Amino acid sequence: MENKSNTGLKVGLGIALVLFLATGFYTMNLYKESNETKKELNEEKQLVMNDLNAMAKQYDEAIAENDIANKDLIEARERIQGLIDSLRISETNVKSLWRYKTKYRNLQKEMDILLAQNDSLRIENSYLATSLDSTRVRLEERTMFTDSLLVQNTALAEVVENASILNTVDLKGFGVIERTSGKLIPTERARRADKIRVCFTVAKNPLVQAGDQELYVQVIDPNNNILGANEQVIFEDKTLNYSVVSKFNYENSNLNVCEFVTAKGDNDFEKGRYVVNVFNQKDLVSTSEFTLK
Fold it and tell me: Coiled coil: which residue ranges (predicted)?
């Protein structure tokens, strides 16, 4: 009887050892795949950043080569810089890369129209046109790589896209003069602006339950300072500095929201480009930029 008991114990220990080793092997494979995916995403983000910087440099050369600065080229250059700044502080995930791919496509269409309207500029700067075409090809190749990466991570993309979070559209920021009567007058003059007004539309999401909701608004001035409250909130391994918390009652429909942000202390607003970001907890859901003169 004792021999049978010992034999049963040995068999049980053997089975437990096999299960333990199998579990460990499976866990190691999952960890390895996760690290490889993160590495590929970081590499792709850096490649996109490099190509956007190259495009921005080509715009700088085009602007410098003309005696009279082309307003359309300058504005396009500023939009590219805004995308670069936003990409630099964004999280590296499939959703983020997909969003920046969409924004790049819009910039690409705009660039095609802009170049078509500036025939004389293209003739005088043939090298610039060739370089921009080359940059477009490289960015398209990066886009193809991103598409492939999205296909390989379909499960992850579906989890992110179907998450119960609110997104925003039509994000705009601008300076306003506030009269004693409460009337607000938009202004592009930095020294005349009393506040910065940030407006956006909270998009309907049937997966989000109706009730009190909040988003974090971040306004970054030309000196890379965060205006407003400049307080911190911690989400797991990420710390977010925000200008104001936008709190509202969500009723399962599109909702227009506006918030106000003040300058630091009693100082005037700085001249230059401002970046506005809206976060749903730690996730960047929209970004925009504007200029005060």
Answer: 31-124
